[in-house]
Write a structure and sequence with these properties.
- The chain is an alpha+beta fold.
- It folds into five domains: 1-161, no CATH class; 173-359, no CATH class; 368-446, no CATH class; 450-528, no CATH class; 541-675, PH-domain like.
- The strands form eight sheets. Strands 13-12-11-19-18-17-16 form a seven-stranded antiparallel beta sheet, with helices on both faces. The chain has a six-stranded antiparallel beta sheet with strand order 22-21-20-25-24-23. Strands 7-8-9-10 form a four-stranded antiparallel beta sheet.
- α2 (179-188) crosses α4 (206-229) and α17 (541-565) runs antiparallel to α18 (568-591).
- The longest helix has 31 residues, at 416-446.
- The chain is flat and about 85 Å long.
């Protein structure tokens, strides 16, 4: 309500009946009725205040005390409505903003505003010739933006407008026109072998040629349909992807649920200047697949889209209720970012007049000597055997029984001595080629590996034929892993991988550094993340005995069986494997350890694949102790630290049960100490550690 031409502060009625202002009760009655006094009777010619503003009742004209012309008011009028009349709240009346559609009815010529332009009154109002709007007062029924409060805080709009930091959605965009070529070629690769075999076996039959041509035409038509039907739109708070011609699909991804945006480009994509954008959201698509995929967009648009999605996600995540707005953090996390710059996809440095290059820090670029470390990876050493298996599979599918019969005839008709020599030579060649193939395949995968930091995220790029770029927000990185194997330990080489919340396919997407010298990897780790600066506590000697029993025991039993049945070769083989087991058990024991430096918690285990996982103390959400019957007899336990990132938990194997409880209580006393029970007085001595 208004008094003497000034706006009067008010509050919202608790039961949603409109605004309550000084001098009126929620039902629209006078102040005297609210305080217990008898309500006054309405003056002739004045609307009853007890029914004012109700449905079907027109608002009354209240004369202005200052001599100004009267204007329409209602009990539903409040300080944040900017002078809206009751008609601005009703969806079936002209003028104001429709609370269901959010549109300004006063600007729509179909709402009947032309019929009221002469009088300046809203539809349904009781008007008189004296009701002419003053120069400083908007005509009734017109939409007036809400005024800001006295302290400068933007007024809350109660009529359905969004309070997002990005009020304007981006225009609907399509894939690059070059996607009409990328899609058919990618699908044609799967049909090249069947088409070639069909043409070769069919003797270039016209029917086979026609069917092959029809398949190619169908692929080209599918590419055209894909380009015409796939579109995407970045809204204020969500990303929407539309696709399909006959069976249409519309996928909506909330921006604040986005967990990762990856940009990949194969050799074909790079030749055509396009890329694939994959979006992953929290609790998104089942089976670990991406929630959204755009194949293919322009390379520049892919980078812009990634920056916009991650920046908007950061702004929406950093909600600032004290200011009534949403504000993200800048690249250093020191202050709110400009929402307009984020909406436009402008980097934080550019928003302030800087340059993108100044905001990007390069932590690592692949050195040529690092490609040789691929020969130390067990997975890449098996590359020749994987290639042979693939070759045999292709031959089997294309030639079928003919190839099998040919190989069988050649083996049966060839001299056994020659066959043995050829087999030994083939094995020797494979062994010699294993490191060569390992280095080559490793180089293809990690070619041009780089680790950069920009806009508060770590960006890892790698690949020769298929270039892959993975962006990891530092706020979601809760720790790291250092991994190695026995061959890599001989050269003091390790790999670096991040422990990230809500990341699928972490084995490939969380890689921060490939295999390299430990000193160089730790130097990059210190610059990019928080390293573990403490020392690891060794586990009890009983853990060593358990390692030996597991590594040596089965072969000792096997050697005993060989002695019983008098198989000398079995005894020799089992004895050699038992000696290897002794060394393996000792190495596994030396790898055990756990520690805490006041900020980071670290756990290490494994031998053939040793892993040291380091997580922030703030990421620890629980502890789990597991004991078998033999562990209880030895006083050991498996202590698992539960975190909300990575694999969800990392285990200190065969740790001392009592010391592990004290260790956990020292890291997170607020979690563990409520469950500790002290021994009876004088039972174990003053220095006894509490048992959990």
């Amino acid at each position: 309500m208004y008094d003497d031409g000034a706006r009067t502060p008010g509050r919202r009625d608790q039961d949603g009946g409109g605004w309550v202002v000084p001098g009126r009760t929620p039902s629209g009655d006078a102040r005297g009725e609210a305080t217990g006094a008898a309500p006054r009777e309405p003056v002739p010619g004045e609307a009853d205040p007890r029914t004012e503003g109700r449905a079907g009742t027109a608002p009354a004209s209240v004369p202005d005390r200052g001599g100004d012309p009267p204007r329409e008011t209602s009990s539903g009028e409040g300080p944040d409505q900017g002078g809206r009349s009751a008609q601005a709240r009703a969806p079936d009346q002209g003028g104001g903003r429709d609370q269901w559609t959010g549109r300004d009815q006063g600007t729509d010529p179909d709402q009947g505003m032309a019929a009221h332009q002469g009088t300046g009154s809203a539809p349904g109002a009781v008007s008189s010739p004296a009701q002419a709007p003053s120069a400083d007062r908007a005509p009734a029924g017109a939409h007036t933006p809400p005024d800001d409060a006295a302290d400068g805080t933007p007024a809350r709009d109660w009529w359905g407008e969004s309070d997002s930091a990005f009020p304007v959605a981006e225009p609907v965009r399509r894939l690059s026109p070059r996607s009409m070529v990328v899609g058919p070629i990618n699908q044609l690769r799967n049909l090249v072998v069947p088409i070639a075999v069909g043409l070769f076996v069919g003797g270039f039959n016209p029917w086979v040629i026609g069917a092959s041509a029809a398949a190619v035409v169908a692929l080209l038509a599918g590419g055209l349909v894909t380009w015409r039907t796939v579109s995407y739109e970045v809204g204020p708070e969500r990303l929407e992807i539309r696709s399909g011609l006959v069976r249409r699909s519309r996928r909506t991804i909330p921006l604040e649920r986005v967990r990762g945006v990856d940009v990949t480009s194969t050799l074909l994509h790079r030749l055509l200047g396009v890329a694939v954008v994959r979006i992953e959201a929290a609790a998104g698509a089942p089976g670990g697949s991406e929630d959204g995929k755009l194949d293919a967009v322009d390379a520049a648009e892919a980078e812009r889209l990634r920056r916009v999605l991650l920046d908007r996600r950061a702004v929406l995540a950093d909600d600032a209720p004290e200011s009534g707005t949403r504000g993200g953090r800048d690249a250093e996390g020191k202050g709110p970012r400009d929402a307009a710059a984020v909406a436009a996809g402008t980097p934080a440095g550019n928003a302030a007049g800087g340059s993108t290059a100044d905001d990007t820090v390069t932590h690592f670029s692949m050195r040529p000597s690092w490609y040789l470390y691929g020969a130390l990876s067990l997975a890449y050493l098996l590359t020749p055997f994987a290639l042979l298996a693939t070759l045999f599979g292709v031959i089997q599918q294309s030639a079928g029984d003919r190839a099998a019969d040919f190989v069988l005839d050649w083996v049966t008709t060839t001299d056994r001595g020659l066959l043995t020599a050829l087999s030994a030579m083939a094995v020797g060649v494979l062994v010699l080629l294993m490191p060569v193939f390992a280095v080559v395949s490793y180089s293809f995968t990690h070619w041009g590996f780089s680790l950069r930091e920009r806009d508060g995220s770590l960006v890892a790029e790698r690949g020769l034929f298929t270039r892959r770029s993975v962006t990891l927000e530092k706020r979601r990185i809760r720790g790291h892993e250092l991994l190695d194997n026995p061959l890599e330990r001989t050269r003091r080489a390790v790999r670096l991988r991040a422990i990230v919340t809500g990341l699928g396919d972490a084995a490939n997407r969380a890689v921060l550094l490939p295999i390299g010298p430990r000193a160089a990897v730790e130097a990059v780790l210190t610059r990019a993340l928080t390293p573990f600066r403490g020392s690891l506590t060794p586990h009890p000697r009983a853990a060593l005995y358990r390692r030996w029993i597991r590594a040596v025991g089965p072969f000792v039993v096997l050697a005993g069986v060989g002695l019983v049945v008098e198989w000398t070769w079995l005894v020799v083989v089992a004895s050699v494997l038992a000696l290897v087991g002794v060394a393996l058990g000792l190495d596994r024991y030396r790898s055990l350890g756990h520690g805490y430096d006041g900020t980071m918690l670290s756990v290490r285990s494994g031998s053939l694949r040793r892993r040291q996982a380091t997580v922030e103390r703030s990421a620890v959400i629980g502890w789990t102790w597991t004991q078998t019957l033999l562990q209880r007899r030895a006083g050991l336990a498996d202590l698992q630290v539960t975190v909300g990132a990575g694999e969800g938990g990392y285990t200190a194997i065969d740790a001392s049960q009592r010391r592990s409880v004290a260790f956990a209580a020292g890291v997170t006393p607020e979690i563990v100490r409520p469950f500790l029970v002290r021994p009876p007085t004088g039972g174990e001595g003053p220095g006894h550690t509490p048992k959990g």
